[in-house]
Amino acid sequence: MPLLEITNLGICFGGLHALAGFNFVLDSGELVALIGPNGAGKTTAFNLVAGIYAPDAGRIVLDGRSLAGLDPAAINHAGLARTFQNIRLFQNLTVLDNVIVALNNSAEHGLLTTLLRGPRFHRESRKSHARGMELLATLRLDQYASRLAGGLPYGDQRRLEIARALATSPRILLLDEPAAGMNPREKVELMELIRFIRDRFKVGIWLIEHDMNLVMKISQRITVLDHGEMLAVGSPDEIQANPKVIEAYLGAPA
Questions:
Q1: How many domains, in total, are found in the chain?
Q2: How far apart (Å, rounded) are the C-alpha atoms in residues 35 and 186?
Q3: 218 with 195: CB under 8 angstroms?
Q4: What is the mean pLDDT of the chain?
Q5: Residue 2 domain-assigned (yes or no)
Q6: Last residue of a domain, one of 112, 146, 165
Q7: Distance (Å, rounded) from C-alpha 80 to C-alpha 70?
Q8: pTM (two decimals)
Q9: Is the pLDDT of residue 123 over 70?
Q10: Separation of alpha carbons 115 and 44, rounded Å
């Protein structure tokens, strides 16, 4: 059984099918991409899986557990984390505190312990600080730990958003256009980072991206959407040679 299995997923907005008959599987250690023109339904698929939208049809199963009816927080606790097209950091918190906020989602102490600042609270605070610094060091952000997140360069803000997602210990990581706004050097570093995260954290990575050079270099498998429907599934070589994909999205080679 795949770690993540999506079957016949669909949703309508105002009578229009934003996504219909969508099928997808992802296992631990896989790195796969979802591509297609703007408005094809890519982010809608992510929003359905992450619990932001409720599907009109289909099933989403993570490690044998249906995600139907779960809210985003419960889905995150079940093992799925995501980033967004537009960076969503706490700009006025430090880099370290952005990660600690995510770590505290799994804290064992309750509200009363937090208010009383008991021994468990302090023990878990020290643990969160150490774990946060470890994550920042792993993603080469530890030198910025005390800086405000809003003051980081754009590429490092993207990296911090990924670090915060990883702080929730996901088994599946969804990356929504992580290369958006990056320069060529930053995109090369991002490719290396995505591969590193897959290997270091043993997560399955599902990627939406418009930069085809990045997609073709790092993806093991690619799904193509067009107008809310699946157009093709295959390896990068198969997708690049698919006439339907070329016509709808990639364009004829120069």
A1: 2
A2: 20
A3: yes
A4: 89
A5: yes
A6: 165
A7: 12
A8: 0.88
A9: no
A10: 39
